Amino acid sequence: MIALLVRDLKLAMRAGGGFGLGLAFFLIVVTLVPFGVGPKSSLLAAIAPGILWLGALLACLLSLDRIFALDWEDGSLDLLATAPLPMEAIVSVKALAHWATTGLPLVVAAPIFGLLLNLPVEGYKPLILSLILGTPALSVIGTFGAALTVGLKRGGLLLSLLVLPLYVPTLIFGAEMARRGVAGLDNTTPMLMLAGITCGTIALLPFASAAALRVNLR
Amino acid sequence: MNSIWEYANPKKFIQTTDKVLPWVSILSCVALVVGLIWGFFFTPDDYRQGSTVKIIYLHVPSALMAINAWMMMLVASLIWIVRRHHVSALAARAAAPVGMIMTVIALLTGAIWGQPMWGTWWAWDPRLTSFLILFLFYLGYIALWAAIENDDTAADLTSVLCLVGSVFAVLSRYAVNFWNQGLHQGASLSLDKEENVADVFYHPLLVCIAGFVLLFIALVLLRTRTEIRARRMRALLARERMG
Question: Which of A13, A117, A118, B15 allows an S-S link to A41, with CB 3.0 to 4.6 Å?
């Protein structure tokens, strides 16, 4: 399991893995928003948590098809499937690797991008906390979508169509938690709900993803 | 011998629906015509809403069926996963577009009603939003069916998607509830009589709901039969090419 994790991380980090791509995409989204809505700093501060969450979600979505596609093409996914490791473990490790290469950098970079959007100082803590809690769920749900569409030729667009509705609860609670934090309100309820969604998806969705992957490898 | 699984045999299914389908269709037509005419022409205008209240005869039944269609797909998907009856998978596939159209009807009639009543075509109200999300789920489900060439793979994957999607649809429903307070009124129908709409509106509404249920059953049966025949035809063509 650890060997697989290390392998996936190395593949992502080294040339051609597209490690920085999600981050660059996040930056571009954040840069484009002021062009779209105008540079008024009070408006930007009001929508900053939502924009940062949307940007993180889209950056996550962008890198999803890479989770299985490369391994599917060169056949290493078949090899993994015949390995003694259960499919559920493979899927979980893949999701973890995806989170470490996309979700984690986003969390780290979020304060800098918050600066660009004029996010108030007291908003940083709840925003980062909400992203830490929420991005694992995004990766796990995304892995499920990637497992469903792995064998398809034009899977990219379909993947977004399948995954985005599944992202709704995570986005609602994540953005709500950040927003309430910025406004200085009590955000315990959305925080607990977000943590619940993340724990629930981590516990249950790998089984669904593994089932989908088994069907696709049949 | 007399178990429900008999109908998992496509031949038996076609034979039975041959007999049932005309009756269901006729009954559905009768119920819809009676219910809609009764509702549109023989009920008084509401004292506050005027004649706009009559859109309820399309709105409530279609919204009800949009949710029930997904439930039916969920059950059919479970049957396919557990017992691998092809008719069940095909029925789920057949129900999806019907359910999607019901969702669209509910959204459109709601918008048409909302414009004069709430002064807006659309509001980010929990019920409206969750219906929009339900519509997206239908879209994804249908797109996944269409994208996969192998029938069994498609049936398996869409079943998994339907199961996961159901959980997330329920989750979204509550999340959206939390996110914004509602403009939409509470349930128009429920088992405890207190909350119900007045009797004059209630009886034609029941007839309309019965009509929509029967219409849904008729359409799903029809579409399932078409799918079975299409699949049979493909098999025959393939055999001819081989021979």
Answer: A118
